[in-house]
Amino acid sequence: MASVTVYGPPLSTAVSRVLACLLEKDIQFQLVPVDMAKGQHKSPDFLKIQPFGQVPAFRDESTTLFESRAICRYICDQYADRGNQMLMGRKEGGLVERYWVEQWLEAESQSFNTPSSTLLLQLALAPRMGLKQDPALIEQSEGKLAKVLDVYEQRLGESRFLAGDEFTLADLSHLPNSHYLVNATDRGGLITSRENVGRWWEEISLRESWKKVVEMQQAKAPPS
Amino acid sequence: MASVTVYGPPLSTAVSRVLACLLEKDIQFQLVPVDMAKGQHKSPDFLKIQPFGQVPAFRDESTTLFESRAICRYICDQYADRGNQMLMGRKEGGLVERYWVEQWLEAESQSFNTPSSTLLLQLALAPRMGLKQDPALIEQSEGKLAKVLDVYEQRLGESRFLAGDEFTLADLSHLPNSHYLVNATDRGGLITSRENVGRWWEEISLRESWKKVVEMQQAKAPPS
């Protein structure tokens, strides 16, 4: 039996980030559904392992963790010799390469995540939930995301992936939001119309790990 | 001469996070001012080391990095044997303790940072810059921050610091925004009125490293 357990629905962007990382590292895991519509993420038992009442939560033997990017870092270090061993930079690249990964992982977390998450909420989720869209917020977020992607466009003209010549956690961490932006909104062109970003997106979205996550999402998706 | 250089004004919250980390680690550094009012952070030379045109940028010998939390992680690992050696968890605590630090550092980055930064912009900066405040946004951010601090209140009832019994990078990373919230707005009570959070704030804000950062900020502050 797998010692690793992920709690949360694969449709969640943060959950799917952790799943992609586990699949890259070739680590078996158990996925425990958390029915957010029924408020299971706010239950006392769940709050013991995720006090903010968010997904995912994560367990490895007796260690529990929350926050998807912290969980991914843990997986990479705890299982350094398993599966893809480049996710935190090549071993021979030492600390410098590790911190190039950290730098672009933080760029995702600080610069890419907020405007892309806002666009997903406004363009993909709000209509399904019968909520009113905020056109000013959509325009503002699109502008912010475009500026971030302009920096990525330049960077990805210099190197194949964000942190260098290898696919790392920095690239992986962009998959969940980018996937929905391209496949569930009409603003995918923000990514696909930029030459280098589009080339990068095509490469990272075709990784076996991510294709498997998308299959898990589709198996759980509500009928459209 | 110091091999480490930080580019940016100490009044910036992200710059001051890096300065506090360097002071905890007892590492000499050179601080190079970046005059943001004159747009120096958008100059071609600066964009070479910080392509988003934000502060801080960081150099150690020939390595350059951006993103304050990535820089702090680099400092802790690159100078593991210098100064405070607990910032990423006690050595004997191994990976598990390191990832408790990561987990709460991510909580700061994902949950605490946005509502506290918004409050600082709205309550402290907007009036000075003659910008109109947004009362709905202030109320929304205050509500979000209160919920985050309720989780901290419970956590800090169980342990002296966020990640355990030692002051770590997770605590340090909260200093910049908390300092301005307490000292430059009328909403400091969000922090000081909570028993455990208030006790924690008093302890972390009195660290020699942070007092030195505040001195550096006051030396650079515009006349009030």
From TrEMBL, chains A, B:
Any one Gene Ontology molecular-function term assigned to this protein's record: glutathione binding
GO term, biological process aspect, one: glutathione metabolic process
Residue ranges constituting the GST C-terminal domain according to the UniProt record: 94-223
InterPro entries hit by this protein: Glutathione-S-Trfase_C-like, Glutathione-S-Trfase_C_sf, Glutathione_S-Trfase, Glutathione_S-Trfase_N, GST_C, GST_Phi_C, Thioredoxin-like_sf
Keywords assigned by UniProt, alphabetized: Transferase
Domain GST N-terminal: 2-83
Catalytic class of the enzyme: transferase
GO cellular component, one term: cytoplasm
PROSITE patterns, per the entry: GST_CTER (PS50405), GST_NTER (PS50404)
Catalytic activity line of the entry: RX + glutathione = an S-substituted glutathione + a halide anion + H(+)
Enzyme Commission code: 2.5.1.18
Family in the record: Belongs to the GST superfamily. Phi family.
UniProt protein name: glutathione transferase
